Amino acid sequence: MPESIPQGLSPDPTRLNFKIPGQDVVLSLLGLSAIGDQQYALIEAAVKAGVKRFFPSEFGLDTASAQVLAAVPPFRVRAELIDTIKAKQAAGSPMEYTAVVAGLFLDWGFFVGFLGLDVEQRTAELWDEGNVPFTATNLSVVARTVVKILTDAAAYEASRNAYIYTGSVTMTQTELLAATEKATDAKFAVTRIESQKLIAESSAKLAGGDFAAMLPLVQAVGFARFHGEALTDLRKYGLFNEKFGITDGSIEEMVATMLKHRFELPYVRYIAPTP
């Protein structure tokens, strides 16, 4: 990273000020556990320093959706951070924001099993019938979209004070499984997850303070229906990356590429080392 682009974070905004002046953009990549007080501090410092555009730590589920926030309550802090920026604007701050919604991460999720497949063991866990469409984005597409916003005047303007939606593909778990079986020339053993049961159990655990229960709730927002709606099918919003010419291939092409180059960067980063 060039020295002209500062990195790092202190929760004390007074200690951030020396790093932020002269920067047009702040890109926050904080994890959820640090997203509250530390990102509030970062927003305060950015406003004070005259930053023009702030990217909050989104890059996942659609936190503009009340149904998503009801399903995964800890994500409410993300929506509240946008409200904080809007309040700063109402008070006279010219700082704008762009919130990037990527749905589920495709390449990372494929290799760590988050999408329900274990490529090594040739097994799959499908939620219900595995037929709920969800949008997933490769991390490279997220990065290319951010770069496009910062280097293209039309993209910069189109993303001003807005949630934007990205996607490499919209598919179902069943379609992902079929593409993976084709690419590996293998049949996977399938088990079924009863979505409503797991959602109820995980919600109760989360309410009791077990934050590990948040993970299956995030998966549920991708793979289950809530009041009949597929909450992570982002096509209804129009995919920002596609509007600006940033696309990947078909799911079959992407799966084949990931498997072929699995021990190369960037994919090898996501593969757990063999004990």
The appropriate CATH architecture of the domain at 105-138 and 167-232 and 247-262 is Alpha-Beta Complex
Spans of 5+ residues with little confidence (pLDDT < 50)? none
Q: Biggest β-sheet: count, sense, barrel?
A: 4 strands, parallel
The named CATH superfamily of the domain at 105-138 and 167-232 and 247-262: UDP-galactose 4-epimerase, domain 1
What distance separates the N and C termini? 32 Å
Q: What order do the strands of the largest sheet run in, or round the barrel if closed?
A: 1-2-3-8
Question: Can you describe what's shown?
Answer:
The mean pLDDT is 90. The chain is an alpha/beta fold. Helices cover 41% and strands 13% of the residues. Strand 1, helix 2 (37-49) and strand 2 (53-55) form a beta-alpha-beta unit. Strands 1-2-3-8 form a four-stranded parallel sheet, with helices on one face. A three-stranded mixed sheet has the order 4-7-9. The chain has a three-stranded mixed sheet with strand order 5-6-10. The chain contains twelve helices and ten strands. It has a domain at 105-138 and 167-232 and 247-262: UDP-galactose 4-epimerase, domain 1, CATH 3.90.25. The chain starts with 12 loop residues before the first helix and ends in a 15-residue tail after the last helix.
